[in-house]
């Protein structure tokens, strides 16, 4: 019936479908959101648009504006002392914007003649899927090629009371009431970003961490991210895991925590778990058609052309085993896949040196190797790490956080001091990091960094005047212009 | 024998960088710094233009204005702020001035730490190795050195042909040090400075008008000419929607003081051929800067200057026409007037003089940013310069109108948020220039400037994965060409 059927209407799925349609193919996209235990659901667009990047960054922005309000007094702005934040106003504004994006996607698909079904898709036999909509109506569809782009959903801790009393990021961004005193369980970027903006909005936030922060990220940077959050009022309970959640009375919850030595209790209003995400691959009939998945994490292994072990089935986005869980990567992979299938292209998705940013109160942008991984891969003696603290000019007048922002570049001495890792902790980290990622793709070296003139006054210019190496042990505290 | 290995005349960005670098090599170094008070009587401490009356106070006041916008945005994001909200100039000015003074202090401490001798004196040449320094009180000191670096920078010009301009007008030298609000202000003429100042003055709630002629100013490099075309009109369009009034194709003829102590400005409107007047609290001139060489006595030692601009002529190694006399920073002919280039040039010069280096300064592809309410950052060639150099058939311009995510909930107009990339059209598609208008333009452009230094091509940029959600990622997604005539508005994710 179709040239291409894509299961999953998120960043990857939509990008792929639109590209394939533009190349003249008959395309169908299925998208369906299984409601959360709380009953939350959302429209077309996937995680990023509905319960990921977009609402996250907007709430982060709301929190940053809270900080801006405080700074503004030092810059001469005057208004009444008491400023409070209204959660409902913020959520409504954000949800309205998301609604416009959902709508925009539907229009976009229609314009490109992509058939869209708001139905749950699963394989029933080779080349054939069963689509079930919300009302239970079933239709069947066949295609020459399939793309799996079903993404992931938050994992629950598997303790008594978890589904009853805990919410996840799936619920947080559309929560109709202010979460109040919140316990965030987890130390992923999701956990820290949520904890960060909740605290920035004036809420009492505690983060429960089993072991380390931001696993997989550069640990020196991760600790600095956490330290900044702590100095700004976020409480951390480290080396604890929750063992039970229960309701005390009405909406107050209790969490019983456990570590090796003691059992304690915490009274909170909301428990928000952010302990990882599970791929949506278990119930879509993959076993029926023989698509292999990694049993441990449910993710789909693919070759470098995003093809699964079943030749006519491809996969992109968060469900890929061993690949980055990022919107732009999924979009890139989806587009390139369509061009390879139907446009005669042979270009593959480049997963090397993909830049990212964690939007915690103090943002962390990076591209390339974390320092630990670089040491593992190249050996400490073959690396030179340049680093610097810096003080954003805008923070001088309000007297904020001197010697907190930090930047480092990791260079490979054996390859002309090639920059293999770049990390920055500071405001607008994403804007700063993006251009450097392009430069790294072009083979950036320390010499080129030194030769480039900085834009003054910015934070990004710190990378053009980095002289001190970690090896030298010299003091990097900033004293002035 | 000369007393010092190096004497630097001018304690600004370039001068201090050069002096401190030379001191690192164990050399005996002295710095002379002196600030002639402005016609209005404003003066300041060690550190030069950038620190005292340039980049630093400018960006801080720009930040104050941005925070004003943030206050408006905050409502949409759920923050309840009781109206009215108003801005008090003196609180801001004092905070900014205090910070600047801390930098003055920091510089003095640094010089001391590095054992550089500092004289708060005005220098003038007696002979190629001798400089006469004069304190404010008139006390004289003679300093001799093997090498001398002139880094005296520039000062704002006054349009002295306009009656009352000198008497009643101020410049950026004075604006940042005003204790009281400038009130209703007229920054005159078109230049980065006037737009930036007009921008933040509007942002903190002051009634501001910018008066400008239409003719591009002479003596400007290509990057600035670009500024007067597409990118400039987007920036000024935004400022207009933001509240700044523009008096286009007008030029002032006189400034008079009224009984109320306000100023009356008379100008000619060349479009209508009429003469108009209005009263202001402050008139600020931003009609260009003149090199500070008058009292240096350059003719005595034979240092050649450009007859039109008055700037000192130097070669690629910053050498003047006189052996052992060098010049760096804003005072040099043909160089960008930027702090980071002065600093880099100063450091490299010291390394060449005392550190056995032969590395010359690279003035190519220097990135810059104009800190108007909607910032404009750029690196490399302007579209016009690229067309001139390569021909419009040989270049491809990719462009996009985008909307910063943070503007959505804030319901802010993103009409002028725009970016364009100028590339060579032939196979490799090397990037010649990148232009970006939007928030945090400086932060966005810096990394891409590195890319251009690495010889980045359009395909390489397209291979770079974006960071989501940011404004910068839109650069990696540019694909609509001007040539195609297609709608360049970025739609959705």
Distance between the termini of chain A: 67 Å
CATH topology of the largest domain in chain B: FAD/NAD(P)-binding domain
What's the CATH first level of the largest domain in chain A? Alpha Beta
Largest sheet of chain A: 7 strands, mixed
Stretches of chain B where pLDDT is under 50 for at least 5 consecutive residues are 215-228
Alpha carbon gap, first and last residue of chain B: 70 Å
The total of helices of chain A stands at 13
| Anisotropy-based shape of chain B | globular
The number of E-state strands of chain B comes to 23
| Rg on CA atoms of chain A, Å | 24 Å
Task: Write structural notes for this entry.
With 481 residues, chain A is α/β, with parallel strands linked by helices. Helix content of chain A is 30%, strand content 26%. Chain A is built from 13 helices and 24 strands. In chain A, strands 1, 2, 5, 6, 7, 8 and 19 form a 7-stranded mixed sheet that branches. Chain A has a 5-stranded parallel sheet with strand order 10-17-11-12-13. Chain A has a 5-stranded antiparallel sheet with strand order 20-21-24-23-22, sandwiched between helices. Residues 259-264 of chain A have low confidence and may be disordered. Chain B is of the alpha/beta class and 493 residues long. Chain B has 3 domains: 4-153 and 292-355, FAD/NAD(P)-binding domain (3-Layer(bba) Sandwich); 157-287, FAD/NAD(P)-binding domain (3-Layer(bba) Sandwich), CATH 3.50.50; 374-484, Enolase-like, domain 1 (2-Layer Sandwich). Chain B has 15 helices and 23 strands. Chain B has helices at residues 13-24, 48-53, 55-76, 89-113, 165-168, 172-175, 192-203, 222-227, 230-242, 298-301, 339-354, 383-390, 405-410, 441-453, 458-463, and strands at 4-9, 29-32, 79-80, 86-87, 117-119, 122-127, 130-134, 140-150, 154-156, 185-188, 209-212, 245-248, 250-257, 263-269, 274-280, 282-285, 289-291, 325-327, 368-370, 376-380, 395-401, 418-424, 431-437. In chain B, strands 1, 2, 5, 6, 7, 8 and 18 form a 7-stranded mixed sheet that branches. Chain B has a 5-stranded antiparallel sheet with strand order 19-20-23-22-21, with helices on both faces. Chain B has a 3-stranded antiparallel sheet with strand order 13-14-15, with no helix packed on it. At the A-B interface, helix 3, strand 3, strand 4, helix 4 and helix 10 of A face helix 3, strand 3, strand 4, helix 4 and helix 11 of B. Strand 4 (84-85) of chain A pairs antiparallel with strand 3 of chain B.
